[in-house]
Amino acid sequence: MMAFPYEWQIGVRYLRAGRRSGRNSFISFISAVSIAGVGLGVAALIVVLSVMNGFQRDVGARMVSILSHIEVYDARGVLPDWQATAADAARNPAVQAAAPFVELAGMLLQEDGMKPAILRGILPEQESRVSEFMQGKNAAALAALKPGENQIVLGVELAKALKVKTGDNVIVALPSQESSLRSVMPQTRRFKVAGTFEVGHFEFDSSLAFIHLRDGEDLLHIDRPIGLRLRIADANQAPRVARELKNSMNGNYLVRDWTQRNSTWFAALQSQKHMMFIILTLIVAVAAFNVVAMLVMSVTDKRADIAILRTLGASPRSVMKIFVVQGLLSGLLGVAAGALAGVLIAWQLPAIVSGVESVLGIHLLDKNIYFISTVPSQLQTSDVLSVIGVAVALSFLSTLYPSWWATRTNPAEALRYE
């Protein structure tokens, strides 16, 4: 204890005395409020960042499950030999599988219902190698697609909107492929619903349909696929691998990775995360600056103690350090309690939200708006450390002015009426 600086000992003593004694109860109350405020702010910031991380993870994973990691297009519009292009791409060790496709936009009609949709023509046996969502019932439905039989597999939400089920017929209406100005009527073709699929991402479940590659080529009046979908070992490396393929493949190819296809969405989510961090940091700052009020009152109450310390030889710097220690410890208590609470809440957030929904009989997330129907959460150590660092820094800054003000105490004035 003798080696422990006396400024720290007095600062800790002031903090403990203010909390334990019956005197100065109002100062103790303000101290408790400042600690609780910092804790709530830190916990809220950790939980919000975890929810945004989880939202990005879950929605991104569902996007990747149905979007190809990388798409390759020939600048001429169609791939003359997709097998040769796939073999060329496979020379990159990151490429694991390839599948040809065509894609076209049209309208699906059924009695008095009508919905816009994206039709993707695929080879089911090849598509299963590049699409993660083709498992279980999804795989069985898509495997039923046969060339030349005009079969279609609808997203589950799209099928609900059209009020159709397996075995029903829908009409596909597409813009006319003829260049003549006399042809203004869309081309139509009747397709039989071979099944439905579900990704768990409302945008795809409500607007995407699959047909066989040959049927898609017939609709476009071509005899080759328009592109190649590639699967790589790590989806997060798609931008790097796409650049490598662009430089290494023989031919005039357009190469696009999945992050480019959804760049606007991911950029918006990152901007929202940064803004939420700034806004909630301001809340932590407001709570941290409650320490200012607590320390100002503490300095006023301890004027006699300060005067005695100064007469005993304590320097202004030592006096300042005493109150910095007192205020910083208050902030650290709030940060520690808030970080612990935030981590625990974020860790169990899906279960907590599920319990609240069942008790109140409400559903917090509408999948038509948020793409997903459950509240996700993903704790990241970097976020927790960033929040703790910012909160500690704000707590420290809030101690500087009251501590400096304590050094302005005149010993003679303070002891005159003691």
UniProtKB/TrEMBL annotation:
It comes from the Bacteria. Keywords: Cell membrane, Lipoprotein, Membrane, Transmembrane, Transmembrane helix, Transport. Its main location: membrane. The keyword Ribosomal protein does not apply. InterPro entries: ABC3_permease_C (IPR003838), Lipoprotein-release_system (IPR051447), LolCE_TM (IPR011925), MacB_PCD (IPR025857). The chain crosses the membrane at residues 26-52, 275-299, 320-347, 384-406. The keyword DNA repair does not apply. It is a multi-pass membrane protein. GO terms for cellular component: plasma membrane protein complex. GO terms for biological process: lipoprotein localization to outer membrane; lipoprotein transport. Residues 31-247 form the MacB-like periplasmic core domain. It is found in: Cell membrane. Belongs to the ABC-4 integral membrane protein family. LolC/E subfamily. NCBIfam families: lolCE (TIGR02212). This is Lipoprotein-releasing ABC transporter permease subunit. It comes from Duganella callida.
